[in-house]
Amino acid sequence: MRPEQPILIFDTGVGGLSILEPVRKLLPHAPIVYAMDRAGYPYGQKPESELAIRVPALLGRLCEHADARLAVIACNTASVIALDPVRAALDLPIVGTVPAIKPAAEQSQSRVFGVLGTESTVRQPYVENLSMKFASDCTVLRHGTHDLVELAEAKLRSEPTDPAAYARILDGLFSQPRGEEIDTIVLACTHFPLVEEELAAAAPKHVTFLHGGGGIARRVAYLTAEQPWPDRPPPSTALVIPDDGDIEPYRQGLRDFGIEAIETL
Ligand code: DGL
Questions:
Q1: CA-nearest residue, atom 2 of ligand 1
Q2: Contact residues of ligand 1, CB 6 A cut-off
Q3: How far, in Å, from the CA of 117 to the mean position of ligand 1?
Q4: What is the domain partition of the chain in residue ranges?
Q5: Which CATH architecture describes the domain 101-211?
Q6: Is the peptide bond before 233 cis (omega within 30 degrees of 0)?
Q7: How far is the CA of 189 from the centre of ligand 1 (A)?
Q8: Which atom of ligand 1 is closest in space to residue 149's alpha carbon?
Q9: H or E stretch including 59?
Q10: What is the C-alpha R_g of the chain?
Q11: What is the CATH class of 7-97+214-264?
């Protein structure tokens, strides 16, 4: 292991920045490469079979290119669908991002909580299994939304977003039977913590939002505990699988998260 070998953090878009931030806080010396599969965006609306093939192949290519020491799948959709095939295909430690259902069950007072994710994530048996395992005495209400992914992307392009749009999305949870009893919402898509303030402002009452960023950072720190880091890490790079859109509008948003250079693959 060489000190300059990076941690690779992978998502389709800007969502993984909500994971990059706590990782950097805990491991300030770690070199980080932030990989974006723009060409595959949005995973939340792709068939499972496509992601189970695409994610392992692409992540393998990205990790090899970056000479990564460890990869974080900073995307709930890719993790709940493709974590096992990725681990089977790649010869380095892989950390996945799974919905924070266990912490929600531990702290919900009303025993009714919401899970907000992409359409694809919320329908996965993985989520059902987590609910049965850790929240069998709770009512777990799920809502899938691509609109909230788009709102987070727009925010990172420094575009204004409409407060009413957040209220409409939250209504997808609160209008369900027992929805008015929700006291906690699991942000089961890494894009969503980026718009947590907007969600909190639009919520019909005070709720606690939970996501997995802190836990993932601790897991990465644990897995790299004995490893060397450079005295001063190089500025982070974004490694982009391009689509036909323009990456430039994201430059400032990426810079705000300490990503100075953008490289396309
Ligand atoms: N950030 C991804 C997640 O956590 C979703 C983004 C997408 O749909 O591509 O699920």
A1: 75
A2: 11-13, 15, 41-44, 75-77, 118, 121, 149, 189-191
A3: 8
A4: 7-97+214-264, 101-211
A5: 3-Layer(aba) Sandwich (3.40)
A6: no
A7: 6
A8: 6
A9: helix 48-66
A10: 18
A11: alpha beta
232 and 28 Cβ atoms separated by less than 8 Å = no
d(CA 9, CA 243): 19
Q: Give the active site residues.
A: 75, 189
pTM of the model as a whole = 0.96
Count of Cβ atoms closer than 10 Å to residue 116 Cβ: 26
| N-term to C-term CA, the chain | 24
Per-residue pLDDT tens listing for the chain (265 residues): 899 999 999 999 999 999 999 999 999 999 999 999 999 999 999 999 999 999 999 999 999 999 999 999 999 999 999 999 999 999 999 999 999 999 999 999 999 999 999 999 999 999 999 999 999 999 999 999 999 999 999 999 999 999 999 999 999 999 999 999 999 999 999 999 999 999 999 999 999 999 999 999 999 999 999 999 999 988 899 999 999 889 999 999 999 999 999 999 9
**Residue owning the nearest CA to atom 9 of ligand 1:** 42
Q: In angstroms, what is the span from residue 230 Cα to ligand 1's centroid?
A: 31
